[in-house]
């Protein structure tokens, strides 16, 4: 898809899951993105939800899975079903996804099982919202920290700690300052 940002069109690769959630063409859209920078090109990947982007980022850490295959994997099954298959080591279910062979599926389970379980536990703990603030504020603060060069996982962890300690946070700026102190 092409996203128009202030008159500049950006080509964004999205999964089938994300494309089904997009509004009609020409309507405003908000996507979370991942930019892959290579020597010869830059590619932008878009996601409708933070959990989808998080799983994408985990998938591309697995040897043999690049961004395109990760998008294919996310397009091949429901996000919750994919996470469940990884958590429970259902290799046969993973091999049904186009482009995923037995070795890749086994590697996904070995490399991601614990990480996906931790992610699911964090989302379950945060389902009622982070203590003293809202999910959108936490996401925005984590993105701001990531823009400052802090790793995504470290940024989210610092934001969670800051929100837990502060109790109440009134702005993203305040949350970013508190999270920087947690590092």
Provide the fold topology:
Blueprint lengths: L1 E4 L2 E7 L1 H6 L10 E6 L4 E6 L2 H10 L7 H10 L2 H9 L3 H5 L6 H24 L9 H13 L4 H15 L5 H11 L1
Parallel strand pairs: 2-4
Antiparallel strand pairs: 1-2, 3-4
Structure summarized in a few sentences:
The chain is α+β, with helices and mostly antiparallel strands and 183 residues long. 56% of the residues lie in helices and 13% in strands. It has two domains: 2-125, Orthogonal Bundle (DNA polymerase, domain 1); 135-182.
Describe this structure in words.
This protein has about 180 residues and is an alpha+beta fold. It has 2 domains: about 1-125, 5' to 3' exonuclease, C-terminal subdomain (DNA polymerase, domain 1, Orthogonal Bundle); about 135-180. Helix content is about 55%, strand content about 15%. It contains 9 helices and 4 strands. It has helices at about 15-20, 50-60, 65-75, 80-85, 90-95, 100-125, 135-145, 150-165, 170-180; strands at about 1-5, 10-15, 30-35, 40-45. The protein has a 4-stranded mixed beta sheet. Helix 7 (about 135-145) crosses helix 9 (about 170-180). It is globular, with a radius of gyration of 17 Å.
In N-to-C order, the SSE pattern is: EEHEEHHHHHHHH
The largest sheet is: 4 strands, mixed
Which CATH C-level class of the largest domain is it? Mainly Alpha
Separation, N- and C-terminal Cα atoms: 37 Å
Low-confidence stretches: 128-133
Strand order within the widest beta sheet? 1-2-4-3
CATH topology of the largest domain: DNA polymerase, domain 1
Number of strands: 4
């Amino acid at each position: 898809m092409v996203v128009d940002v202030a008159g500049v069109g950006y080509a964004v690769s999205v999964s089938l899951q994300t494309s089904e959630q997009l509004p009609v063409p020409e309507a405003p859209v908000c996507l979370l993105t991942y930019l892959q920078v290579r020597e010869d090109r830059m590619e932008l990947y878009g996601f409708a939800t933070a959990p989808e982007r998080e799983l994408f980022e985990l998938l591309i850490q697995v040897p043999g899975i690049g961004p395109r295959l990760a998008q294919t994997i996310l397009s091949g099954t429901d996000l919750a079903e994919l996470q469940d298959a990884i958590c429970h080591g259902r290799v046969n279910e993973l091999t049904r996804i186009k482009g995923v062979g037995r070795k890749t599926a086994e590697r996904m389970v070995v490399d991601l099982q614990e990480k996906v379980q931790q992610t699911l536990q964090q989302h379950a703990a945060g389902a009622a919202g982070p203590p003293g603030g809202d999910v959108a504020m936490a996401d925005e603060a984590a993105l701001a920290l990531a823009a400052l060069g802090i790793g995504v996982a470290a940024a989210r962890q610092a934001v969670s700690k800051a929100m837990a300690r502060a109790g109440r946070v009134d702005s993203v700026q305040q949350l970013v300052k508190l999270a920087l102190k947690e590092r």
